[in-house]
Amino acid sequence: MQNQGNCYKNVWILSGTSDGPVIANRLLELNYSVFASVLTYKAGQAYIENPKLHIITGKLNNKDEIINFIKINKIKCVVDATHPFAAIISKNLNNACKEINTPLLLFERKSLINITNNFFYIDDLKNINNIDLENKNILLAIGSRFLNDTAKYYMNCKANVFTRVLPTSESITKAFGSCIKNSNIAILEPSKSEQGILEKKLCDFWEIDYVLCRESGSYSQKNWESIISGSEMKLFLVKRPKLKNDYSYSFNQYENLIDHIFRKY
Fold this sequence. Notes:
It contains 9 helices and 12 strands. It folds into 2 domains: 4-108 and 242-264, Rossmann fold; 119-238, NAD(P)-binding Rossmann-like Domain (Rossmann fold, 3-Layer(aba) Sandwich). The chain is 33% helix and 22% strand.
């Protein structure tokens, strides 16, 4: 495929380690220059080395930083492939791109959960209702940002609270600084297969009754679905926020996103 008209145009991707590298690789093959924003140095290592790929590490604090970055680097379009619950950065991206009339594209994988007797959607982290939680073991796989507050809530419901957090300094610090007992904290990367081997062993070891996670569409969510399916455990999925519906263009397939960028920018 030739892309003479779009040679070396700059596309900015904000993503984690699942979708970002795939989108970046396909754009690089089409001769785009790609800027990829990640939160940590480790996340940046998921990307290939390429002279037209530029990795930017760290948080973007506000709308003005985003506008400045777009202008300095002459970005032609921005791809928001951040976590579905990354509400602050998505809001700032939306406001910034609208202000300077830069195209903003949303990429968000579908969540294809098949609702069964032990899969449930809930509206927020503290929305497990109509269930007696006393002396039940609940595993929080929700990240670290709201971990302590959520753990306190379920402890007040007299549940035994456990958690799995990512091996990052921020997650580990927040986990061990929370109200959860140290012996109830596991630090591990989500298994990148539907087998969910480590997570399954963790649930068996802790005799987990309920798992609480967020509807991300990621391999982590798919692992929990696979583990819970056919078991006695119950999975509670917090619905995605509606904030990200406010986009002119949204995609859930790589091919459609890349084709749109190729034709338009």
